[in-house]
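Hello,

Our lab assistant flagged a job as stuck in the queue for most of the afternoon. It eventually completed. Since we weren't sure the result was trustworthy after the delay, we are filing this so someone can double-check. Below is the sequence as submitted and the structure that was eventually returned. Let us know if re-running is recommended.
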Amino acid sequence: MDAQLRAIADPTRRQILQLASEREYTAGEIAERFEMTRPGVSQHIQVLVGVGLLTLRREATRNYYRANAQGLMLLQKQLDTFWETGLADLKRLAEGENER
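-- returned structure --
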């Protein structure tokens, strides 16, 4: 989870994930959406693929990228544990205050 959190800490990577959640894109199509070099966008894509948040599908000489729903769901489940723990702590505090 640490690698995935580091990956999504970057705003460009979050934008790439948002874009790729709509449909498959080639690296060139993704790069057209950003004001940076293609190699720069490609590095962001490779980080997201490496941590399992983007999938890669090869077709002939083209690579297609799409948000990995399964990888995102696993990350969400892990993050939800923090939320659930926080809510449980809040509930205990609220119930404890009501008993007084």
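-- support follow-up --
The delay was a queue issue, not a problem with the job. The result is valid. Helices lie at 2-8, 11-20, 27-31, 38-50, 69-99. The mean pLDDT is 90.
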